[in-house]
Amino acid sequence: MPKLTVENVGEFDVEPGKRLVLALTDDAQIDQLHACGGAARCTTCRVEFIEGEPDKMTVAEKNTLEAREVTGCRLSCQILCDHDMTVRVISRLEGSGRADAGHRPHDEIEPQPVEWVEK
């Protein structure tokens, strides 16, 4: 079972293949933002990897990060917990001024993942 370590929060066992955004909100009980509902449209679910950053990303994540000119972080809605990882949550409801974190993302990655690997 993969271990998710969240900086300044703790370590959690996560069901293999669970979306990182859901592991953060459901398992770690963190008020991680996900304004678009986990569809890789907004970048509010950003995290920084301390260890265990996946070496692949979905096309949706790549396109959204590039369009918003975001670097140095990843979208937790587009990452599956399939190995141990340590993250820093940088996008939380507390202090954001938003009424809520967003509606609960589906269990499966949306849009359907197509991995992108630089050639």
Strand content: 15-25%
Mean pLDDT: 93
How many separate structural domains?
1
Shape: globular
Query: Total strand count, please?
Result: 9
Distance between the termini: 31 Å
User: What are the segments in which pLDDT stays under 50 over at least 5 consecutive residues?
Assistant: none
**CATH architectural designation:** Roll
Q: What would the CATH topology be?
A: Ubiquitin-like (UB roll)
Assigned CATH class:
Alpha Beta
Helix content estimate? 10-25%
Number of helices: 2
The major β-sheet equals: 5 strands, mixed
Indicate the radius of gyration in whole angstroms: 13 Å
The CATH superfamily is Beta-grasp domain
Describe the structure.
The chain has 119 residues and is an alpha+beta fold. It has one domain (3-96): Roll (Ubiquitin-like (UB roll)). It contains 2 helices and 9 strands. The strands form 3 sheets. A 5-stranded mixed β-sheet has the order 2-1-8-4-6, with helices on one face. A two-stranded antiparallel sheet has the order 3-7. Strands 5-9 form a two-stranded antiparallel sheet. Strand 1 and strand 2 form a beta hairpin. It is globular, with a radius of gyration of 13 Å.
